[in-house]
């Protein structure tokens, strides 16, 4: 069984933001092409009694929060239904912490879609990021959506995947090939490598081509067993390979990078 080849639904988290609404429309495209239901999930946050003026105030707040969550979910479901009239959409509102609820939902999902935190990086650092918490703890693949909220549906741009040879990296490759085939787009495989520790020893300039060749061979080895898999989308994906020698630092190309890749930085900064 492949990463997406099952009957589980796609789950998208909704919080009332325009970014989450756009993420829901994007998720609707994937669900429609995979012919699986889309769960539109809203969460009623827990209210700390310490912030309520009284128990009566607490009782008044909860219905308002639930009503708002239900409105947000209904609006997202309506937007998706307008794009995908044949898609089965399952609205769902639960109580609790948003990240915890999404992680729980991931146990029965083939894909979990969350919107990136709007605003600048300082806002993300100060307020925390539900998206990053979910990406770190979910038990299914997670898509952190960040894009043009006015035009959120998938276009012809390729899918970018990082290749490091780890077991998690192999799972990422499997998911990438299936998703790219589903969308009918190309794949760009990125292998990021580090130069040796300059405080201890380094590679002489004349050795850089040899080091770059070794890393290119490693990338080719990791991709050797992967072939596009036809899906029910627009056609098979095409792997884009454009080998180009690169020195460790600086990088005179567009595929190899001199620094290691931090997944949390990608999730927070990717556009």
TrEMBL record:
Pfam family, one: Usp
Organism, scientific name: Nocardia arthritidis
PANTHER family assigned to the protein according to its UniProt record, in alphabetical order: STRESS RESPONSE PROTEIN NHAX, UNIVERSAL STRESS PROTEIN UP12
Coiled coil: none
Region (Disordered) residue spans: 222-271
Similarity remark: Belongs to the universal stress protein A family.
Domain UspA as annotated: residue spans: 9-145, 157-227
Protein name: Universal stress protein
InterPro entries xref list: Rossmann-like_a/b/a_fold, Universal_stress_UspA, UspA
């Amino acid at each position: 069984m492949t990463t997406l080849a099952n009957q589980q639904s796609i789950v998208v988290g909704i919080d009332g933001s325009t970014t989450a609404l756009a993420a829901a429309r994007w998720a609707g495209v994937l669900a429609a092409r995979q012919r699986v239901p889309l769960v539109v999930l809203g969460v009623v946050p827990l209210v700390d009694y310490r912030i309520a003026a009284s128990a009566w105030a607490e009782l008044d707040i909860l219905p308002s929060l639930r009503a708002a969550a239900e409105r947000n979910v209904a609006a997202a479901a309506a937007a998706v239904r307008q794009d995908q009239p044949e898609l089965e959409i399952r609205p769902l509102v639960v109580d609790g912490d948003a990240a915890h609820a999404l992680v729980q939902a991931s146990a029965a999902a083939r894909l979990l879609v969350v919107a990136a935190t709007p605003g600048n990086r300082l806002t993300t650092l100060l307020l925390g990021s539900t998206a990053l918490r979910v990406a770190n703890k979910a038990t299914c693949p997670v898509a952190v959506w960040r894009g043009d909220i006015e035009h959120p549906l998938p276009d012809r741009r390729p899918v970018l995947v990082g290749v490091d040879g780890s077991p998690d990296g192999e799972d990422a490759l499997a998911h990438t090939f299936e998703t790219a085939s589903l969308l009918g787009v190309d794949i760009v495989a990125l292998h990021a490598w580090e130069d040796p520790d300059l405080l201890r020893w380094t590679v002489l300039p004349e050795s850089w081509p040899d080091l770059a060749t070794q890393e290119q061979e490693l990338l080719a080895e990791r991709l050797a067993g992967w072939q596009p898999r036809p899906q029910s989308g627009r056609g098979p994906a095409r792997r884009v390979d454009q080998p180009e020698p690169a020195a460790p630092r600086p990088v005179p190309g567009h595929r190899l990078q001199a620094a290691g890749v931090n997944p949390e930085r990608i999730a927070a900064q990717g556009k």
